[in-house]
User: Which sequence fits this backbone?
């Protein structure tokens, strides 16, 4: 009788375990509590992230900056997202969850201090430190949520994206209230919420298994599939970047120069992000029903027309155009992020990190370009160019691979 090779038994046991885990994930109910708690880290982190744009007019005045100098705040804060593929690659192999769950506290501390920066270099250092923390969270937690969600990944990513969008709604409102009621000197008190939430999240997840990690295994990175997916996606993001950077960096500045008051300028980003929630919902539903490429195409076309409407309108129509822009801009987010994880299930954090690094990195560089254009061409021309360039994203969307070819 032939003896059984212990190595074969071990391989068979590992295969059975893998199949059992996958079957369990497929049949499991959606983990509402875990998804809500992980998403709450996104909400808190992005609440603080949204402080940068409404603080720019005050930093320009207090530190006597040009707009292109002010663009460096978001450049360094968002530009650190180039670290996300590296962070995600590590997170696919090691448990970096605690580091990611403490990120909202670090982001909150330094961006709450930003409005009180004594000098331009110190303000940049605050943005760099907050950027590293935010990049860590964005690289790790969406993939962790995706691994918990199983077959409900679309629902999980929609919850994640909605939480971040709510943060971008709350942040400008909260900051504007504090600054208008007291002054920028009161903003450091806002860091308390991020510290408390990070501590509570780490306590809750301290005994939870880390499903995103496969110790001792080296997963092959699907270079060709990544190239086929990420290059057209990068082209689409690039063509939309001036539009997005103009709105995220200079919308309050533009409206202030147009004569709007502190409240209107301060809450303009919140109005756009508020209607972006509807865009997230529509994007998720549209992806499931019509496919991700259809959602991206609609998002590109509608956001381009929305920017043109904003540029050539005034008063109430201009404010209404922000609602249209919010819906169309954020439609792409859940569709793109969920598709990235579906295409690369064995490299979730790495692929997710590449996608977010492309998005934040390109937008960071375009923010500097938009600031240079704003200083030399003015707000109307900069916003107009951003709207027109967006239509050049259409060919890149059409080059994206079909949904049924995951790696």
Assistant:
């Amino acid at each position: 009788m032939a003896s059984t090779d212990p190595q074969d038994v071990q391989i068979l046991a590992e295969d059975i375990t893998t199949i059992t885990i996958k079957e369990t994930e497929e049949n499991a109910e959606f983990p509402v509590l875990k998804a809500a708690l992980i998403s709450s880290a996104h909400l808190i982190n992005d609440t603080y992230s949204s402080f940068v744009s409404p603080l720019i007019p005050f930093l320009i005045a207090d530190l006597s900056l040009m707009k292109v100098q002010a663009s460096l705040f978001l450049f360094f804060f968002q530009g650190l997202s180039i670290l996300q593929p590296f962070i995600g690659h590590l997170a696919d192999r090691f448990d970096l969850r605690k580091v990611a769950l403490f990120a909202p506290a670090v982001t909150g501390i330094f961006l709450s201090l930003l409005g009180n920066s004594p000098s331009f270099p110190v303000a940049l250092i605050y943005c760099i430190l907050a950027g590293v923390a935010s990049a860590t969270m964005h690289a790790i937690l969406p993939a962790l949520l995706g691994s918990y969600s199983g077959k409900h990944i679309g629902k999980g990513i929609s919850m994640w994206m909605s939480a971040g969008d709510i943060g971008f709604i709350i942040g400008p409102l909260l900051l504007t209230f504090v600054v208008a009621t007291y002054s920028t000197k009161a903003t450091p008190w806002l860091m308390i919420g991020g510290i408390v939430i990070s501590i509570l999240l780490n306590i809750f997840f301290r005994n939870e298994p880390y499903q995103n990690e496969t110790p001792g295994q080296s997963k092959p990175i699907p270079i060709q599939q990544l190239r086929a997916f990420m290059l057209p996606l990068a082209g689409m993001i690039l063509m939309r970047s001036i539009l997005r950077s103009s709105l995220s960096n200079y919308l309050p500045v533009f409206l202030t120069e147009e004569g709007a008051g502190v409240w209107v300028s301060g809450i303009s980003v919140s109005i756009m992000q508020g209607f972006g929630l509807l865009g997230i919902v529509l994007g998720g539903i549209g992806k499931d029903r019509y496919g991700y490429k259809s959602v991206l195409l609609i998002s590109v076309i509608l956001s381009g027309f929305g920017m043109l409407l904003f540029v050539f309108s005034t008063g109430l129509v201009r404010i209404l155009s922000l609602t249209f822009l919010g819906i169309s801009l954020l439609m792409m987010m859940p569709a793109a992020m969920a598709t990235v994880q579906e295409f690369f299930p064995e490299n979730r954090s790495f692929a997710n990190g590449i996608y977010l690094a492309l998005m934040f990195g390109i937008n960071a560089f375009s923010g500097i370009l938009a600031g240079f254009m704003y200083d030399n061409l003015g707000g109307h021309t900069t916003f107009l160019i951003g709207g027109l360039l967006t239509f050049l994203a259409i060919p890149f969307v059409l080059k994206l691979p079909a949904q049924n070819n995951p790696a």
